[in-house]
């Protein structure tokens, strides 16, 4: 039996919201009234939404072109490929700190910007969309870096997370599946980053 769409949306909304309840009272109240900070948040919420839309467009292309549409059908191949999700736990931890969250967003954007090279090879006919996405990821990272500097926030480094090189795919099928998961992971990463920015905008 299928779960009604409305029920599914409600369950998903509950799951997505749960980690954020702990953030109220985070030591960022002094920033909430800063007009420049609020402007930064609202502009980059829109920018992140735009990037999410472009990732979704590439996901649809991979689905239509290679019939790779459902993660649950590809989990065994995923384990073989070893494609990891960029960490973003600092954006919804109980000890939320803007420095750590922003730094992880920037690190992740750098990882995915590099990983998009695999998509570029797979979909050469859509190079302009992929290259725009790479440029947008770089610009969002730059925006966050500039805001951190403006707020006097230190960049936090995470030495346990080396910059992973692009996976070497042993077959064209693995390249297709790897690209599918790079996009799926990037979309999840962007959704978490979006919720972090939205949360800060409503403190």
Automatic annotation (TrEMBL):
<dbReference type="GO" id="GO:0006955">
    <property type="term" value="P:immune response"/>
</dbReference>
<comment type="similarity">
    <text>Belongs to the IL-6 superfamily.</text>
</comment>
<keyword id="KW-0732">Signal</keyword>
<dbReference type="InterPro" id="IPR040117">
    <property type="entry name" value="GCSF/MGF"/>
</dbReference>
<dbReference type="GO" id="GO:0005130">
    <property type="term" value="F:granulocyte colony-stimulating factor receptor binding"/>
</dbReference>
<feature type="signal peptide">
    <location>
        <begin position="1"/>
        <end position="25"/>
    </location>
</feature>
<keyword id="KW-0964">Secreted</keyword>
<dbReference type="GO" id="GO:0008083">
    <property type="term" value="F:growth factor activity"/>
</dbReference>
<keyword id="KW-1015">Disulfide bond</keyword>
<keyword id="KW-0339">Growth factor</keyword>
<dbReference type="InterPro" id="IPR030474">
    <property type="entry name" value="IL-6/GCSF/MGF"/>
</dbReference>
<protein>
    <submittedName>
        <fullName>MGF factor</fullName>
    </submittedName>
</protein>
<dbReference type="Pfam" id="PF16647">
    <property type="entry name" value="GCSF"/>
</dbReference>
<dbReference type="GO" id="GO:0005125">
    <property type="term" value="F:cytokine activity"/>
</dbReference>
<dbReference type="InterPro" id="IPR030473">
    <property type="entry name" value="IL6/GCSF/MGF_CS"/>
</dbReference>
<dbReference type="GO" id="GO:0005576">
    <property type="term" value="C:extracellular region"/>
</dbReference>
<dbReference type="GO" id="GO:0045639">
    <property type="term" value="P:positive regulation of myeloid cell differentiation"/>
</dbReference>
<keyword id="KW-0325">Glycoprotein</keyword>
<dbReference type="InterPro" id="IPR009079">
    <property type="entry name" value="4_helix_cytokine-like_core"/>
</dbReference>
């Amino acid at each position: 039996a299928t779960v009604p769409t409305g029920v599914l949306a409600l369950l998903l909304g509950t799951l997505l919201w749960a980690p954020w309840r702990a953030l109220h009272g985070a030591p960022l109240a002094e920033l909430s009234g800063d007009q420049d900070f609020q402007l930064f948040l609202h502009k980059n919420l829109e920018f992140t939404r735009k990037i999410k839309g472009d990732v979704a467009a590439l996901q649809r292309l991979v689905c239509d072109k290679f019939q790779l549409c459902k993660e649950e059908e590809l989990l065994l191949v995923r384990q073989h490929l070893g494609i990891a999700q960029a960490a973003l736990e600092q954006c919804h931890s109980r000890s939320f700190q803007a420095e750590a969250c922003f730094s992880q967003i920037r690190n992740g954007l750098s990882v995915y910007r590099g990983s998009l090279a695999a998509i570029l090879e797979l979909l050469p006919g859509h190079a302009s969309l992929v290259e725009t996405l790479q440029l947008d990821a770089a610009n969002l990272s730059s925006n966050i870096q500039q805001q951190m500097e403006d707020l006097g926030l230190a960049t936090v480094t995470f030495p346990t997370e080396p910059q992973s090189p692009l996976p070497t795919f042993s077959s064209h099928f693995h390249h297709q599946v790897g690209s599918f998961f790079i996009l799926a992971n990037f979309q999840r990463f962007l959704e978490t980053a979006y919720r972090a920015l939205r949360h800060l905008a409503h403190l």
